[in-house]
Amino acid sequence: MPPLPVFRKFPARETIEGAGVRLHRAFGYSQLPLFDPFLMLDDFRAERPEDYLAGFPWHPHRGIETVTYMLDGRVEHGDSMGHAGNVTAGGVQWMTAGSGIIHQEMPKPVEGRMGGFQLWVNLPRKNKMMEPRYQELDASAIPEVTVQDGAKVRVISGKIEGVTGPVRNIIAAPDFFDVTLLPEISFTLPVRPGYMVAVYGTSGSAGFDTGRKDEISNRTMVLFAEGTRSLDFRAGRNGARFLYFSGKPLREPVAWGGPIVMNTDEELRQAFEEYQEGTFIRKRTPTPAGTRRSGGETYWGHQ
Length: 303
Ligand code: FE
Description:
The protein has one helix at residues 265-277; strands at 7-11, 13-17, 21-27, 38-43, 56-61, 64-72, 74-79, 84-88, 92-96, 101-108, 115-122, 133-137, 144-148, 151-157, 159-160, 163-164, 175-181, 186-190, 196-207, 216-217, 220-224, 230-247, 255-257, 260-262. It has one domain (6-247): Jelly Rolls (Sandwich). It has one helix and 24 strands.
């Protein structure tokens, strides 16, 4: 048998989502279950307002957690728990949909710029119907650790060098970092035993221990082989920036229907039925106005 590859690369693919948002999908349904416990990473960095202003009007989620991380601009949001706010540049929102949340997410420019990412983290069977919750943090709440000269890590979730990120109650307890390397820097990140690990390039370029320095570049998704215990990065001559994420696989069956991810088709069918009947939300506020699109067609949001 040939040796397993050390890593696999996936270029992000342009996709239309929500009410007409043009974004790049780093990975998603078609890679299932390679990124377990993660389901999807969407890169919605965009230059032209017409590519994102339509946004993601009212839609449901169940059975997952989402982590929205912004670099520029903001995402204005509201949800069925009565919350409303903004995820701002450098800040993060994590949301545990659990038994069900209905929300809207509308990207807006700030000083002409808008861009961010949304990572979907699967919930294990025993937590799929937990009570929904979410938390939102601005840039100042995310610690930036200089791990060595020329290597900075913003710790969104998880831990590095004794510094724990502010996003703490994600069931899968992932490491989710935004890493910046100066030109030609070599940098090693340990991977927790039993965790999968992947990186997504956002600017510049870097290589791993292959001698090349261009394995990862903007909008390249790289997934490492199971059992990888550490990653040795070598930044290219313009430096590199990438998202690093790592988590313990759930290894459970996945039944994925758009914004709802359960274990069985029966659970999916039930979720859609409840949504149509208006019983999807288990507690508190009623289904917000505008959940359904006019013309009788139900709008399912993203994915
Ligand atoms: Fe959503």
